[in-house]
Amino acid sequence: MAGEHGTNRRLAPLAWALAGAALACVPATAPAEVPLPPERPSHNLFGVTGLIDTPTAQMQPDAQISLTSSYFGGFYRNTVSFQVLPFLEGAFRYSVLDEFFPDDSVRRALYDRSFDVKLRLVEEGVYWPSVAVGLQDFLGTGVYSGEYVVASKDFLGGDLTVTGGMGWGRFASLNGFNNPIGWYLDSFRTREEPRSGGGDVNFGSFFKGDAGFFGGVSWRTPLDGLSLKIEYSNDAYTREQEFSDFDQSIPINLGIEYRPTSWAEIGAYYMYGQEFGLRLTLSGNILDPAFGAEDEPAPLPVLPRPVDDAARARAAAELGEVRDLIDGARSSSFFGEAPIAGVTVEERLGGVRWARARLAASADHACPVTEARAIDAEYGVVDAVSFETPDGAVVCTLALRPAGETAIRLTRRAALDYPTGWAGDPDREAAIRARLAEDMAGNGVRLVALTLEPTAATLLIENDRFNQMPRAIGRAARSMARVLPPSVERFEIVPVEAGVPTVTVAFARSVLEDRVDRPDAAHLTWSTAEVTDAPRLSGAALEQALGAYPQLAWAIEPLIPVSLFDPDEPVRADLQLAISGSVAFAPGASVTGTLTKRIVGNLDDITRTSDSTLPHVRSDFAEYLDEGDPGLTRLTADYVTKLAPSVYGRVSGGLLERMFAGIQGELLWRPADQSWGVGGEIAYVRQRDFDTLFDLQAYDVVTGHVSLYWDTPFHGLSLQLDAGRYLAGDWGGTVGVKRRFSNGWEIGAFATFTDVSFDEFGEGSFDKGIYVSIPLNWTLPYESRSRLASVIRPLSRDGGQRLQIANRLNPLVEDLGSGPLASRSEGFWE
Amino acid sequence: MTGARAALAALLLGGLLAGCSSQGPTDLGKVGLLAWDAVAPAPEAPAPLPDRAALEATGAAVIRLAGSAGPPGYVAALADNGGYVTYQDAAGRAVVLHGAAIARTHGFGHDLTGLRTAREDPVSHPRPLIAWPGQVVREYQYRVKDGAAYSVVLTCLFERGPRQHIEILGRRHQVVEVAERCANHRRRVENRHWVEAETGRIWRSAQWIGPFEDPLTLEIVTPYRPARRW
């Protein structure tokens, strides 16, 4: 009885595996292969999906990112567009409009930054077109502002696209007519001019004033890559014609476009009967890595545990001879004719239907294969059948379905009983630890600490190599399965980030052994993983971890800071050398410094002086660039720790960033099994001198925020809301949304609104920007955790500015919750 | 002397710009090394021809592995997980065989991450040639690097050729060459197997492993003999 109980207890955790295993055995019902996607539509001169100078309702493939440069009539437009969601396209544009101002003005060209969005309302069907609504230049100076509703329909298998739309603003500046919305709402009859400062959302103008029609046709010719376009555009280019030579003759544009490869497209156009135009678009997809291949060597294989004779005997007593009858054959005999005294059907291991058939006394006790099928036919779906003699001895067990086969395998596993005499012997445990560390080094992961129990092991790892943590966890699991004594059945793996244990990912060793190398191995293995918050580092684990300290690290590498959108010189850059070093004294406790030195560049040429009426917390950036070479951009003492299993803490002090020094504390509550978390930080800082060394200026401030982080279940979108006091002493909040892709790309946008008025803020009205972070291994054929991250702000002003801290807590753990880990787990066995 | 100093300074600067760290080359440094490898690849020496007698004496199961690029290599069986046998070489290439079917690859660039075969598939479940079915369906599994998993499902038809003799590292085998033509609505590929008719053992095969890799040719130099299973 005790043995029986023990068996069941051992089986219980394996039941999880069964559900996954049963899934694995479901015959493939997936389509043979995803059909080739249709050719993606082209961009227009504004850099959004469209015809020539007007948009269409078409969308790029999800996550497509494109850079378009175009020119005609003295207008340069450089646009980065991104398919934010399958039905939402966004674009940021930097335009140069020559001769926009009168001859006697300070400058003649307008350097304009603008944002567009286009939302698809209706997806194209067999009988109806796709329909989209869009806002052009909705968040800029309003020079290009216009709104539209547009419909597009494909014909000739997608080779011919016909588009028609109605627009407002720029889209109705020629041949406009009374706004139909104005028939019902008087306020829509007239349109307000954009605010002169620019930068705020032009709510007051949307869909107001006259309306106009636009449309056209795009034809993909039989010549590979060649398309022809014709469109009717209602954009009068009124302001542009006022001071320049550009003179619109007719509202018709003609174009010829060529796409030599999937990622490049060129177009030539005859615009408005007057000018020739050109366009070049380079395009790629975030979901399609630039380097699809990798040169990562094979991991070391999982070594299955040996099976001894005693275990075989125990399994044989429970199962008898085991046979596999999973061949789809049907019963050829009737149940009523079978020499069977009785059948009971039990549910085992989470739903497996297991029949126990007692053979009649007259039976010859040979394994009755045909009767097993007859039982299956008689009792409905039966996964496995065990035949017993009248006195209860099991003759044989037959697997009739894959679930039965897996249940038999798990039953055999439960019969294993490995010795545990090694446990508690410090020398043997140390030897195991040393072997495991060596094996893990071969698998690309570092052992921080290993604690052993007779049937369980907890392994803390550091992953400096793999972009996706589940892959590092998989490598560690392989090593554990190769090295740890056979009695260790439960593997707990704890990734350590910045010296802090993050989450515990637990697997049953049997599951690893049963799933490795099989179809759907990664998915089915990870589906059995338990992800929980890791406890604080303590006891033997802390003792082992401390043995690796102090740790010294250094790096010398190039740095290319870039300044964009300065009207005097829209692109400036430096090539700098960054020398960084850190000394870690204990887990989470370190001193880090970075010194930069310009080698060549022109960032120090910026002469822009701040006109801000707020404390100059950011707008004196030119002074820092000019005088801060060489510059000590960071010199901090940091301590990161866990205060509770799901509460992280950090204290940083010193030269926190290029412009501020001081002390900062941060707390984050982010449970592993929760999609949201809450954090808070507070800092007392003083502004650093422009020489970016050790001197400080007089300005000081207490700044801090509370933050809410939420990983929405919607297309990988993460939301961050911050509220608090900013560097200039202004109070307010920041809304940030970013899309996090499983391959590590992050792209998002943020906007900050504080008690600083739009006028007081100055040009741009409020702080806003775009955030992009690219995992380096997306672009290269080897594994790396490095990233290229950048925040693109149209302007650097003083309102709504936060400290730029390198080691905030949320980025440390946001990819280590159960959800993000699961979404990146396909590489577990790689 | 001034020129030498300038050259040394330029070299030092170049090295610094490529990046280095306490962990070895930085990412930029690695890119530089990769670029150097691409421009001036080190010649790959062919693996020395192993001695059959010595191989058999070790009891190791060894297969000869050849792609379209580079010299063939020899890989040894290192692990058997429920009939999925991992063959791996010191250079970090590995294939996992299920029967004679390549069920997984590692270290090839675009790796096969899984293979689902039917029980009647004679390549993964050996059976005498006379019992081979006319066609089978296979699901080849992959994933985009750090991205989503995807499958290629192919329907494969077998076509028997003549009996012939092949020689693998000095040993002759009488086999039947079987062409396996696999297709779906997007692609057509062909595998070839040299099968011992009576046992269904495949001594040599050329197998498709994915849309972005060349087929692999396997030859069983010394066959794998599984330990006693349950």
Could you explain the architecture of this structure?
- Chain B: Residues 1-23 form the signal peptide.
- Chain B: Keywords: Signal.
- Chain B: This is YjbF family lipoprotein.
- Chain B: It comes from Paralimibaculum aggregatum.
- Chain B: InterPro entries: GfcB, YmcC_sf.
- The complex is a heterodimer of chains A (830) and B (230).
- Chain A is globular, with a radius of gyration of 33 Å.
- In chain A, strand 15 (352-359), helix 5 and strand 16 (384-388) form a beta-alpha-beta unit.
- Chain A is 17% helix and 40% strand.
- In chain A, strands 24, 25, 26, 27, 28, 29, 30, 31, 32, 33, 34, 35, 36 and 37 form a 14-stranded antiparallel beta sheet that branches.
- Chain A is of the alpha+beta class and 830 residues long.
- Chain B is an alpha+beta fold and 230 residues long.
- Chain B has one domain (52-222): YmcC-like fold, CATH 2.40.360.10.
- Chain B is 16% helix and 44% strand.
- Chain B has helices spanning 2-18, 27-39, 52-58; strands spanning 20-21, 24-25, 62-66, 73-81, 84-88, 94-98, 101-106, 114-117, 135-143, 149-168, 171-183, 188-195, 202-207, 216-222.
- The chains are: A alpha+beta (830), B alpha+beta (230).
- The interface between A and B is large, with 74 and 64 residues.
- Strand 24 of chain A pairs antiparallel with strand 1 of chain B, so a sheet runs across the interface.
Give a brief description:
The complex is a heterodimer of chains A (830) and B (230). By secondary structure, chain A is an alpha+beta fold.
Distance from N terminus to C terminus of chain B (CA atoms, Å) equals: 76 Å
- Rg of chain B is 22 Å
- Provide the low-confidence segments of chain B as ranges: none
Give the CATH architecture of chain B. Answer: Beta Barrel
Derived from helix and strand composition plus strand pairing, the structural class of chain B reads alpha+beta
CATH fold name of chain B, please? YmcC-like fold
If you average the pLDDT of chain A, what whole number results? 89
Number of helices in the DSSP assignment of chain A: 16
Greatest interface and its residue counts? Answer: A-B, 74 and 64 residues
Mean pLDDT of chain B: 87
Can you tell me the overall shape of chain B? globular
CATH class (first level) name of chain B = Mainly Beta
Helix content of chain A: 10-25%
Fraction of residues in H or I helices of chain B:
10-25%
For the biggest sheet of chain B, the summary is: 12 strands, antiparallel
**Helix-strand topology string of chain B:** HEEHHEEEEEEEEEEEE
Spans of chain A with pLDDT under 50 lasting ≥5 residues? 1-30
The proportion of residues in beta strands of chain A is 35-45%
Count of all domains of chain B: 1
Number of strands of chain A: 37
Tell the overall outline of chain A.
globular
